[in-house]
Amino acid sequence: MAANFYFESLLTTALNGISSSGVISTMGHVSQGFIVATVLYQVYETFWRGGDYHELGTVLIKGMCMTTLLANYDAVFRLVVSGFSGIAHTLLTSSAGAGDLINQWLKDASKDWGATAGLSAVWDVVKGGGAAMLNLILIVPSYVILALAYILLSLGYLVVGIVLYGLGQLVLALYPSGALGSYTKSYLKNVAAWGMWPVIYALFSDLLVAINMNTVDAVKSANGFLGGLLGVGSMLLIALASLVLAIGVALIPILAHMIIQGDIGGAVGKVAGTAVSTGRNLLHRNPPPPPPGG
Fold first, then answer.
1. Is residue 192 included in any domain, yes or no?
2. Looking at the 3D structure of the chain, how many domains does it have?
3. CA–CA separation, 200 and 270 (whole Å)
4. Averaged pLDDT of the chain
5. Is the pLDDT of residue 177 over 60?
6. Structure pTM?
């Protein structure tokens, strides 16, 4: 399946490189030895403790399942990645215009800055405008923060994926062990949380499309963002919107982890708390006009 997002294409390239280098094959041979040692130790321990045949059969079944899985480890791992990517792709196809919106937003904002508005803001500072200097101080970091948030998301997705892919066989080989099997369960939870990153990113993209805030031109045409920031300049508007998007991107790994852990309420609370805090900061920066006759 074709990659939906830039960070997915990075992962595909990395997985192909690691697979072709022979690292996975070597780790597979080591993991097979781990499984044999783990199963034998668990069998001896079961007999030593006077365990029944049911417990012994469970150990042997776990060993056979992990042996079969590790024999097809590369295909299984890619199937898992493709499964989460397929969910994200399905979510994207439900919204016309959805895609890698943050990547596209950065490109559009860069063009908008270079065209007229950004140069105008710099020229205002050159002319000595104090307010223009304040706006420029806010505008530039906002663009940088969004770009940095997207880069860190892409890098984090790549690094975590490589670690899970490279060390997965060793951790899975511990599953038959009663004492070390918990590491395998934790590994599977981490794989699921990591796999949710593109799914949540796709939901985030669908949300932006649904509220018609998926492009720089759409935000400028609305002359506001999420019902706020009305009346500010176009460049400052795009900068503040970029800051809000950066916060949303930064929350993706946290939300994925909390959802897999079953803390749905905590995930919602985290988003709500961040939204309220951001809203207060924006209102402090752009207070509403006084009522008529006040």
1. yes
2. 1
3. 14
4. 75
5. yes
6. 0.75
3-class DSSP state of 262: coil
**How many CB atoms are closer than 10 A to CB 119?**
11
Q: Which helix (H) or strand (E) holds 284?
A: helix 264-285
Q: Which of 103, 55, 85 lies closest to 245, judged by CA?
A: 103
**Phi/psi at 149 (5° precision):** -60, -40
CA–CA distance, 233 with 239 (Å, rounded to integer): 10
Phi, psi (rounded to 5 degrees) for 97: 95, -5
Query: Which 8-state DSSP code applies to residue 229?
Result: S
Please tell me the distance from the alpha carbon of residue 223 to that of residue 175, in angstroms, as a whole number. Answer: 56
Q: What's residue 81's pLDDT? A: 93
Return the DSSP state at 253: H
Task: Answer yes or no: is 31 within a domain.
Answer: yes
> Are the beta carbons of 132 and 124 closer than 8 angstroms?
yes
What is the domain extent for residue 226? Answer: 6-285
Residues in the chain, how many?
294
Better-scored residue on pLDDT, 77 or 243: 77
Considering only CA atoms, which of 173, 186, 182 is closest in space to residue 31? 173
- Residue 233 CB: number of other CB atoms within 10 A? 15
In a domain, 1, yes or no: no
AA identity, residue 125:
V
Q: What is the pLDDT of residues 102-154, one digit of tens each?
A: 777 777 666 655 555 544 555 444 444 544 455 556 666 767 888 888 899 99
Q: For residue 268, is it within any domain?
A: yes
CA angle 258, 144, 151 (to 5 degrees): 50
